[in-house]
Design brief:
CATH architecture of the largest domain: 3-Layer(aba) Sandwich
CATH superfamily of the largest domain: Periplasmic binding protein-like II
Number of domains: 2
Strand content: 15-25%
Pfam families: SBP_bac_3
GO molecular function: ligand-gated monoatomic ion channel activity
Family: Belongs to the bacterial solute-binding protein 3 family.
CATH class of the largest domain: Alpha Beta
Order of helices and strands: HHEEEEHEHEHEEEHEHEHEEEHH
Keywords: Signal, Transport
Helix content: 25-40%
Domain Ionotropic glutamate receptor C-terminal: 46-269
Distance between the termini: 84 Å
Shape: elongated
Length: 269
C-alpha cells in the first residue's frame, strides 16, 4: 500500500513539473488569439503607416486641403480594415526614401507603403509583402534638351533621390554603355524637379509611374525602362505575424481583382 501511494505521489510531482514547463514556454499569441504585434495595434486602435506625400497617384498631400491620398493610401486603409474592422483607423506619416527605414526600425510606424522597391539587400532588414505594383526606372528631360536616350547624357548630371534604387540601376546601365554621368542626390522628388527646371541637373530619374506625376509641358519621359522595380509593403523584421497578415491581404486583393481596381482608379496603367 505504501509503495502504491509513493507511486501516485511521484506521478503527481511529475505532472506538476510538466505543467510548470508548459506555462513558462513562450507563445506567439495572446490569450485572445492575436499575435503580440497585431494585438499591440488593436490595443492602440490605429494602424500607423509611413507613406509618400510627394508622389502623385501613390501618396500625395494636396497643398490646398492638406489631405493625403493615393493608391497606397487606399491600400493602407484596406489593411486597417482587415486588422481593426474600420478603414478609417489608419494614421499616415510622411516618409522619404531616406527616412522610411529608420521609422520602421524605431517603431514609429507599423508599416511602410511608400513605393518601396523590394531588393534582396532590403529583405535582410525588413519583411516585404509580395509585390503590389511593378515599374521600371525611367528618365525625364527637358523637351528642348535634345536628349533622347541615356547615351545622350554622357558628361551630364542626373538627379536621383537619396537611398533610392534608381542610382544603382542607372550605374549598371551607364557602365554597359561606357559613358560617364554625375549623380546628384536630393531628399525629395519636388527638389529634383526644381533642379531640372533650373538646369542644375539635365535629367530627373526615378520610377516611371512616379515621374508621370511631375510631367508638364516643358518635359518628356523617355521610353526606355531600366531594372524592374517591384513595390512591396514593409514591416519590421520581428513582426512576423503582421507581415503574414499583410502578405495574405495583398494576395487576396490580387486574386479578387481589387488591386487592379485600385491601380485603374488612380490611373497607374
Amino acid at each position: 500500500m505504501k509503495k502504491w501511494f509513493s507511486l501516485v505521489a511521484l506521478l503527481a510531482v511529475m505532472a506538476m513539473a510538466l505543467a510548470g514547463c508548459g506555462s513558462s514556454a513562450p507563445s506567439s499569441t495572446s490569450a485572445g488569439g492575436d499575435a503580440s504585434d497585431i494585438k499591440a495595434i488593436k490595443e492602440r486602435g490605429v494602424l500607423k503607416v509611413g507613406v509618400k506625400v510627394d508622389v502623385p497617384k501613390f501618396g500625395f498631400k494636396d497643398p490646398q486641403t492638406g489631405k493625403i491620398d493615393g493608391m497606397e493610401i487606399d491600400l493602407a486603409r484596406s489593411i486597417a480594415k482587415k486588422i481593426l474592422g474600420d478603414e478609417n483607423k489608419v494614421e499616415v506619416q510622411a516618409v522619404t526614401a531616406k527616412t522610411r527605414g529608420p521609422l520602421l526600425d524605431n517603431g514609429e510606424v507599423d508599416l511602410v507603403i511608400a513605393t518601396f522597391t523590394v531588393t534582396d539587400e532590403r529583405k535582410q532588414s525588413y519583411n516585404f509583402s509580395e509585390p503590389y505594383f511593378t515599374d521600371g526606372v525611367a528618365l525625364m528631360v527637358k523637351k528642348d534638351s535634345g536628349i533622347t536616350s541615356l547615351k545622350d547624357l554622357n558628361g551630364k548630371k542626373i538627379g536621383v533621390a537619396q537611398s533610392a534604387t534608381s542610382k544603382k540601376a542607372l550605374v549598371d546601365e551607364v557602365n554597359k554603355l561606357g559613358i560617364k554621368v554625375d549623380f546628384l542626390e536630393f531628399g525629395t522628388y519636388p527638389e529634383i524637379k526644381t533642379a531640372l527646371d533650373s538646369g542644375r541637373v539635365d535629367c530627373f530619374s526615378v520610377d516611371g509611374a512616379i515621374l508621370y506625376g511631375y510631367l508638364d509641358d516643358s518635359t518628356v519621359i523617355l521610353p526606355d525602362r531600366y531594372s524592374p522595380q517591384e513595390y512591396g509593403i514593409a514591416s519590421k523584421k520581428s513582426n512576423t505575424s503582421l507581415a503574414k497578415l499583410v502578405d495574405d491581404t495583398v494576395a487576396e486583393m490580387q486574386k479578387s481583382g481589387d488591386m487592379d481596381k485600385l491601380i485603374k482608379k488612380w490611373g497607374l496603367k
